[in-house]
């Protein structure tokens, strides 16, 4: 009898699976298309891992919201190929010579509900961002506005803030000091407008599909929390003629392996690395299924310059020289990254020279280890500090497989090339951040991504009073150079000062850059014209699908 | 009986209060807060943020406020998803997790009891060994191994079932089975051992001796006595499976509650941590209570009275 039952169950289970499978979706082979525009312009993306914190520019504080806002909201400007600002809602703008006063002239544009997009909407959105009551994370992106920071601190009134709608189509902006990259900041999602009339009536306007109003190429069709967002073409968009996609599906995919399977079965057409399992990256890059592009970001080792003997620059340099960056990139990471030869990474433009900032400064760091020089420097450094031998230091990283592999490689290199034993310590992410801020570490990993497209976003990190400077590095000359670069709009003067500052930074080496990031992405062959801007944002505005 | 239920209810509330208080203290004692991030925020911005979420007040004040809101069933607003209340998250996520969980529990319970009985009835024979090996595998292979395997074979290679998402019944099949695996193994083993114990009892021999057909012996006499241990674990098992699994829901992209148990802590999303912990605890306590009531129904020897409550 027992056998009968168990067989029965097994049979039923198999039967039900077969029957259900018959109703399942079919597979689509992906061959190189015929090049003709596909009839159905509906795309599914794999780059959203989880529910975005919010689609209101005020709440957006992460790349997930950013990825969606890139399709739904347009700011004053859009980002051009080289990181320059090109017209968005603002048709044109004029600025005074030192870039402290900019007047934006808006085009005729509409919100998805039919209301016009006015200068008032921008003024309202920016002041709302700065309003201390709203506790916006990215308020500091507007501290460049005159009295912006003071208003956020409660020391100035909203009326004092340097942004004013002169009329429906003219927005006047006044800045605290010359900020040439303010234009590039206006492409950023925090500075995009909000529909004042809608927001004033309903403060939760951006949390459901029905109440969401936007001004970009796509609007929100449906939003199933924790599961999926669907965007559809926004016919009210000022450039709607260019938009070919009719629908963008954004299922939330938390597990890369699942995402990759969805890509293989044709359930996902295009994505960033969110659907690339780490252990498959090399294979997929080699086969061409995934593609890599330089990403403006640097992975580094930070030294606590208050901890003996890392207070000595020779010791810090010795540790940097003992690292074989080429090996880390080629044998540990295997994702097409570039050994860093400076702090400002590849892809970041030098606005005076018209090419990469990193190309102009030349090499600060060799890609391979310089063991002899490293040993010599360590010896000298230790002697200067009155130490016999290197005390045991702990390299701190946050718990993560990738960081762990790098830490282990570093540990081995320091052992081999410096004959120094280093302990590895790993802690949970927020504990890691707290300990770094508190200076409770010897040396630790660090990664930096730009806030805007200008080398300044990297260089001002190591100013003495910078909140992000966990190394506690302090150098008067360095600070002066950065301040000088901040005081002028003359790109030649600015870039010169920043290069000089990087010379100091790489000589003092409170931070030892390891590698520059790559951005891995996957597109099916029939997906065309996706625009991946250099700041990492991805736009499907002009993307289209060809016949499979 | 009523006195017993009343007493239990009071105890349940006290346990919940204790859990809520402990969670509150522990949660605030771990380093970091919801706003710690790699890009450090200006001091003023941080203060503004803390003021907005009431985190600028002294902890005892926050605690009292929280308990006050809790009494009104208001669990607050998620700090990460600022427009969603914790109540929303629970209302939307729980039905999904519970749906998946109920299917898994049913599979685990029915198949587990049957398989356990078969194994016991055929003790030390081939079918017993096979079932026990399967049970060991089921208990020891974690879901994060099983789920991708299922996805690969059922989804990719054989193209039988969808491997992600939520909404249609066929999407629930694979995750339900993966989720059922370990409880299924547990129930099978428990069932087998308690069956074996019961089979050796005198009253079973008596039942057999008086000529009852084997199926009646098993269904009337053996099963009812042997199922008690299974009922015991059903309480905590149901509570944990119905409130969602982080791994299974993540792999199959299911919009359930499971991820909030993990992510809320990584994000230090205080209201969500409190919300899901209290919700889960309440559910667990309730399930245990129901199980205790069930005992009395299944096995009349177990008496429920005010005195016995513990």
TrEMBL record, chain A:
SUPFAM superfamilies reported in the protein's UniProt record: Periplasmic binding protein-like II
Signal peptide feature range: 1-21
Domain Solute-binding protein family: 85-469
Classification via Pfam families: SBP_bac_5 (PF00496)
CDD domains: PBP2_OppA (cd08504)
InterPro entries: Peptide/Ni-bd, SBP_5, SBP_5_dom
Swiss-Prot/TrEMBL keywords: Signal
Protein name: Oligopeptide-binding protein OppA
Protein source organism: Kroppenstedtia guangzhouensis
Automatic annotation (TrEMBL), chain B:
Main subcellular localisation: membrane
Keywords attached to this entry: Cell membrane, Membrane, Transmembrane, Transmembrane helix, Transport
Subcellular location: Cell membrane
Transmembrane segments: 9-30, 100-120, 129-153, 173-191, 226-252, 272-298
Pfam family membership, one: BPD_transp_1
Domain ABC transmembrane type-1: 94-295
SUPFAM superfamilies: MetI-like
Topology within the bilayer: Multi-pass membrane protein
CDD domains: TM_PBP2
Family: Belongs to the binding-protein-dependent transport system permease family.
Protein name in UniProt: Oligopeptide transport system permease protein OppB
Gene expressing this chain: oppB
